[in-house]
Design goal:
15 strands, ATP-binding, globular, FHA_dom, Transferase(Phosphotransferase), domain 1, four-stranded antiparallel sheet, transferase, disordered N terminus, Tumour Suppressor Smad4, 13 helices, kinase, protein kinase activity, disordered C terminus
């Protein structure tokens, strides 16, 4: 039997925001999540051939019958046979005073009200309509809340011209650290920083389509990624296999290398800021929230780590976030992310608190979790979690490490990036990679050999020579930069912590 298109969870109605409208009789709108929707029997608004439905009446019916308010037809579907799964009168929608919406199942096959999406999102045209400025609502229809973070909240939006789905990050300017410092020059500084971010284009970097600058906030229109956060995937699975972790981590390293090459240090790398494009463990990743930490006050950023500064580099903790740092802090954070199934630093230890563990680089590889992990992976972790920033691997060293000397993984990642690049170009985005990362070439020895005479191999890549624009000094504290000797007794932790 042909699969019936599932329906929208009505609980989402309560999360929808507003769109400014000149017609007070419109109490809601239906936006198609599929583009092949020839509406019959209703007044439609066509913008660039993608219709949406304005709701003014109290009752609407949907189905195959020509007497329905909305008639399904075979041209809607990639498989015309799907039409047969709908009844002539499939379901009815009824509005109660324009505030509540009821769906009544009239079909023989069923309407999955609490299942997956029907292909529409209901937008209440009256609630919260004053929350967003006209500069935003004139270009985008605001939908449900997707999440909140240190830099602001994220909303689902629809571009009014095309009905394309986007994510909108709202960054309140009151959190900007540069506001007080620059006075009248603050607007030009913000514009300069945003211009840098908007020029970035890489398959593993979240794409910024638009930025709307208002007096109160920046509204950043971003690529919508619907596979969830790496954090949630790890919580769900406990931890990834080493090969799956390698597949994802290579993309992270390449993405961070791209940022470093463009003078941007992320400063807030964590599993919540690594997005996955689908539900497969081997999928394209997208790094997000890059560059915002340069605009947002350091105290605001550090609030997200209260009590659990798991991913912060030692040099950040030593200065409570008030110092200046090199891009080496991103390498440390990536090293912790690599181990997030069993984080190297944990509050479960009894001999040292969490901050002391991080600042002094005290961590273990308990056999209960690490016995099956390769020595190359452990070697990479050790060299990324080096307390002294100047002795830590650069991101290019990470990419060239022996752990990535894996033809199958490199081939799969290369094919994925090429496919994503082609897709980006087809969408009108300048995501052309001028050259493949060095990891895909065979003319350079991997950085993973044993340390000789106490020194690490040095990278000649320009990636290691491009610190962030606000990076002025490297902080050194030799008294704290020590590791526990390998033969020193260490507790074996029995509880795995995911974040």
């Amino acid at each position: 039997m042909t699969e019936l298109l599932p329906t929208q969870d009505v609980d989402e109605v309560n999360h929808i925001s507003a769109e400014v409208t000149d017609d007070s009789s419109v109490w809601g709108r239906l936006f198609p999540l599929q583009k092949k929707l020839p509406f019959i029997g209703m007044v439609l608004l066509y913008t660039h051939c993608y219709p949406h439905l304005e709701l003014k009446d109290e009752t609407y019916t949907f189905g195959r019958g020509e007497d329905c308010s909305f008639t399904f037809c075979s041209s809607m579907f990639d498989d015309p046979n799907q039409l047969a799964t709908f009844s002539k009168h499939h379901f009815k929608e009824t509005s109660y005073q324009g505030k509540l919406m009821f769906i009544q199942d009239l079909s023989s096959n069923g309407t999955f009200v609490n299942g997956t999406k029907i292909g529409f999102i209901f937008c209440d045209s009256n609630s919260e309509e004053n929350l967003f400025p006209p500069e935003v609502t004139s270009r985008y229809t605001i939908s449900k809340l997707l999440g909140r973070g240190a830099c602001g909240e994220v909303r689902l939006v629809f571009e009014r011209g095309s009905c394309e789905k986007r994510a909108m990050k709202i960054v309140q300017k009151k959190t900007f650290s540069i506001t007080a410092k620059l006075g009248n020059g603050v607007l030009s500084r913000i514009k300069s920083e945003v211009d840098i971010l908007m020029k970035l284009a890489h398959p593993c970097i979240i794409y910024i389509y638009d930025v709307i600058d208002t007096d109160e906030a920046l509204y950043m229109i971003l690529e919508l990624v619907e596979g969830g956060e790496l954090f949630d995937r790890i919580v769900q699975l406990g931890q990834l296999s080493e090969q799956d972790a390698k597949f994802l981590f290579l993309q992270m390293a390449i993405a961070v290398g791209y940022l470093h090459e463009h003078g941007i240090t992320h400063r807030d790398l964590k599993p919540e800021n690594i997005l996955l494009t689908n539900n497969q463990n081997r999928c394209l990743i997208k790094v997000t929230d890059f560059g915002l930490s340069k605009l947002v006050d350091g105290n605001t950023m550090l609030r997200t780590f209260c009590g659990t500064p798991t991913y912060l580099a030692p040099e950040v903790l030593r200065t409570a976030g008030s110092g200046t740092y090199t891009s080496a802090i991103d390498v440390w954070s990536l090293g912790v992310i690599l181990l997030v199934g069993y984080p190297p630093f944990t509050e479960e230890r009894k001999d040292h608190d969490l901050q002391t563990q991080i600042v002094q680089g005290l961590y273990d590889f308990p056999d209960i979790y690490w016995k099956a992990i390769s020595e190359e992976a452990k070697d990479l972790v050790r060299k990324m979690l080096t307390v002294e920033p100047s002795e830590r691997l650069t991101i290019q060293d990470v990419i060239q490490h022996a752990w990535f000397d894996d033809v199958a993984i490199k081939t799969d990642v290369r094919e994925l990036l090429n496919k994503a690049q082609t897709t980006g170009l087809a969408m009108g985005r300048s995501e052309a990679l001028t050259k493949l990362p060095a990891v895909f070439t065979e003319d350079k020895a991997p950085v993973g050999n044993p340390v000789v005479n106490g020194s690490l191999p040095q990278s000649n890549s320009s990636l290691s020579k491009a610190p962030s624009q606000d990076d002025d000094t490297v902080l050194h504290d030799k008294s704290l930069a020590r590791k526990r000797p390998a033969d020193e007794d260490s507790p074996i932790l029995t509880k795995r912590v995911t974040a």
